[in-house]
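note to self — DONT lose this again. spent like an hour looking for the file last time. sequence + predicted structure for the chain T wanted, 230 res
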Amino acid sequence: MSAVAATPGLLPLPGLDSRLAAGGNSVPWTIVFTLTLLTLLPAIVLSMTPMVRLLVVFHFLRQALGTQTAPSNQVLMGLGLMMTWFLMQPVLLQVDQQAVEPFRHGQITGWEAIERGAGPPKTFMLRYAREKDLALFTAASQTSRPAKPENLPLQVVIPAYMLSELKAGFEIGAVLFLPFLLVDMVVASITTSIGMFQLPPVVISTPLKILLFVMVDGWNLLAGSLLKSF
């Protein structure tokens, strides 16, 4: 018998017990889901978004320019986060429509919301994960190869996607490094040929590389190339 029915002088209201039970289950699920999401958010951003590729390319650019700490890690992280948010907006909208809104209205349970919400990010990752990397982790997990990549579990898709993103980031970074490496070689050969052994070539090449990067509007070109790669 419910607490309301057991209280003397009070009549039980129709459907009150069911509403209390639904509310009692909904609130803990919301708390668990929110706390889990907040705890895993940094790992999710680094492993399931374009953040890995962007940070690798930014690191190669800073090394190629020879500026060491300019832009700072905070600036590059902020730029990477904003570009990641821009690129992931369609995926986040799908997650909101398929999982968050139905869960908010009590149409699905917490587990169903998590399963539905994992669908759009998995589709995004499979779009850029190489088949070679997917096959590697499928074989390592000792699971049978499914008929479609969409049937692969997240524990296979996520590391395969990260490997693919690392490879793509290193490829872009290597191509980005070549023109600055050419400037370093030209400056080093000139300073050596005229006998300037006391002056390190990097002292001359670094301003030249920065000037070249600014003249060609390098940040705009780099951001445009990275956005077009997705």
